[in-house]
Design a protein that fits this description.
- The chain is α/β, with parallel strands linked by helices.
- It folds into three domains: 46 residues, 434 Repressor (Amino-terminal Domain); 129 residues, Response regulator (Rossmann fold); 138 residues, Response regulator (Rossmann fold).
- Helices cover 46% and strands 16% of the residues.
- The chain contains 14 helices and twelve strands.
- Strand 9, helix 13 and strand 10 form a beta-alpha-beta unit.
- The N and C termini lie far apart (72 Å).
- Pfam families: LacI (PF00356), Peripla_BP_3 (PF13377).
- InterPro entries: HTH_LacI (IPR000843), LacI/GalR-like_sensor (IPR046335), Lambda_DNA-bd_dom_sf (IPR010982), Peripla_BP_I (IPR028082).
- This is LacI family transcriptional regulator.
């Protein structure tokens, strides 16, 4: 038989004090109102019986759950999981718990999750929003919810966000490949209107225009990633544009699919095909030859996201202070981006 959960009422009855007294002590509001003797007595008893407060009920009473939700397209992705781990530490140090989940870049799933978190009285939302989610973000802001967007943003909404300088980072990556001896550089990206993907494509095009090179772009539907059709599309792209001597991948998961194709086709890197990816991965260090990448500043991203969210949560007047943060990426040059 399961042990009955101890309530505040049980504690008050056992110690012959009021429920209000117990509540004040448990919520750190007893100083100056209740004697030190009673405070100590309640604290010792709570520790002895291992009392744990019902967070949902506590949140409904106070309107504060001390929970921040981190919503990303895929929490298993190394980039997102690394950031969430660092944010979790920062949140805990400031009295908050971090709850994270995957949206699969699906607007309806994201809406369902937001509604669930509203019901749980979470205190703030850090979101990598899918397409067609502008109105939902506006609704959260109208309700006075602390919101920080991450990795991408909507130009139509004045909301705090933390992003990478995607355009300049991609531009300097393509520039590096040109200086490494490549002239026919293909760009493999997602078929997406999201700001980060648009900016990466613009950065590629800016470099191509600067050096008066030919533009070769493959756009892959996000749904095809689940169906594992990415490799087939990369292979078809290579067959169609046989003069390519380099590939730049707009995400590391696209790069991993592309590397499998190049290995299957026995294409030699870097002599026959230069390779580079936006967003580094441990896999690229282990691959032979090692793969060059544009590295995103994970620690700086995590720090900035929590800094902005905590500022919003601590605003005494409840008004959101809008903060835009655009962080630089850094080139990690390895063996794959220089012609021998």
């Amino acid at each position: 038989m399961s042990k009955k959960r101890i309530s505040i009422t049980d504690i008050a009855k056992e110690l012959n004090v009021s429920i209000t007294t117990v509540s004040f002590i448990l919520n750190n509001k007893a100083k100056g109102k209740i004697s030190e003797e009673v405070i100590k007595k309640v604290q010792n008893y709570v520790k002895e019986v291992g009392y744990k407060p019902n967070q949902l009920a506590q949140g409904l009473r106070t309107g504060k759950s001390n929970i921040i939700v981190f919503m990303v397209e895929d929490i298993s992705d190394a980039f997102f999981s690394s950031i969430s781990r660092l944010m979790e530490e920062k949140a805990y140090e400031n009295g908050y718990k971090l709850l994270f989940c995957s949206t699969e870049n699906d607007a309806q799933k994201t809406r369902d999750l937001v509604q669930l978190f509203k019901d749980r009285q979470v205190d703030g939302y850090i979101i990598t929003p899918p397409s067609d989610f502008e109105e939902d973000i506006k609704q959260l802001l109208q309700e006075g919810q602390p919101v920080v967007l991450f990795d991408r943003y909507f130009e139509s909404i004045d909301v705090s966000h933390v992003i990478i300088d995607n355009m300049e980072s991609t531009f300097k990556s393509i520039k590096h490949m040109v200086e490494g001896g490549y002239r026919n550089i293909g760009f493999v990206t997602l078929d997406s209107s999201q700001s980060q993907m648009v900016d990466r494509l613009n950065g590629y095009q800016k470099a191509i225009d600067l050096y008066d090179l030919k533009s070769n772009v493959l756009e892959i539907n996000f749904k095809d990633l689940k169906n594992k059709k990415t490799g087939d599309q990369v292979e078809a792209f290579l067959n169609k544009t046989q003069d390519l001597d380099a590939l730049f991948f707009a995400t590391n998961y696209l790069a991993k699919s592309g590397l499998r194709v190049l290995k299957k086709l026995q294409v030699a890197i870097p002599s026959q095909m230069g390779v580079m990816s936006f967003d580094d991965s441990e896999v690229f260090e282990l691959y032979s030859p090692t793969i060059s990448a544009l590295s995103q500043p994970i620690e700086s991203i995590a720090d900035k996201l929590m800094e902005i969210m905590l500022k919003q949560l601590n605003m005494p007047d409840g008004k959101e202070k809008i903060i835009y943060a655009e962080l630089p990426g850094s080139l990690v040059v390895r063996e794959s981006s220089y012609k021998p």
